[in-house]
Write a structure and sequence with these properties.
This protein is of the alpha+beta class and 172 residues long. Helix content is 17%, strand content 38%. It has a single domain, classed as Lipocalin, CATH 2.40.128.
């Protein structure tokens, strides 16, 4: 069953209706980037449906140029079952640190692009080349609607698809 799910996930991720997107930010300081990010809005994978309290935590390993990613959420409600999905990443473009290869398990890897990043590292946007997915994340779990709108407009101005975004509910 797991192989069947993986097969359909790969097919789904590889299919696109949007032009290929390859723009990233000029540079990511990984020491500033690592830590906790609250997923606030995005266009998510089939595994991220009906999620609450969605959090990504990044741990940077400079010696190996790798990133441990711990993705957690509550399924179905604020008190729903907590799901943890560990992933590993590696810097694909060391000149910018903004193009990563991320793997839920080896040898499968997906391209993740840091397409937007606030100068103060208060928010970021991670996308994929086919533009099917987008994760807009903030350092705080309850950013203002104005902050969220600003992030979405900035991402849109970069030419990345911002249609059909879903808001993730957070409660702590």
């Amino acid at each position: 069953m797991r192989l069947l799910i993986l097969f359909f996930a790969i097919i789904h991720i590889s299919c696109t209706t949007h032009p290929r997107y390859e723009h990233t930010v000029d540079h990511v300081n990984m020491e500033n980037f690592e830590g906790t990010w609250y997923v606030i809005k995005g266009r998510f994978t089939p595994f991220e449906r009906d999620v609450y309290n969605s959090i990504e935590h990044y741990t940077w390993h400079p010696d190996s140029q790798t990133i441990d990613i711990k993705f957690t959420y509550n399924r179905g409600s604020f008190t729903g079952k907590e799901v943890a999905i560990p992933q590993s990443g590696r810097i694909f473009n060391p000149d910018t640190n903004a193009h990563w290869k991320v793997s839920p398990f080896r040898p499968i890897e997906f391209d993740f692009l840091v397409i937007a990043l606030a100068q103060d590292y208060s928010w970021t946007a991670i996308g994929v080349p086919n533009q099917n997915y987008l994760w807009i994340m903030f350092r705080e779990y309850a950013p203002s609607e104005q902050m969220i709108a600003h992030a979405v407009e900035h991402i849109k101005s970069l030419g990345y698809n911002t249609e059909n975004l879903i808001r993730v509910k957070h409660q702590y």
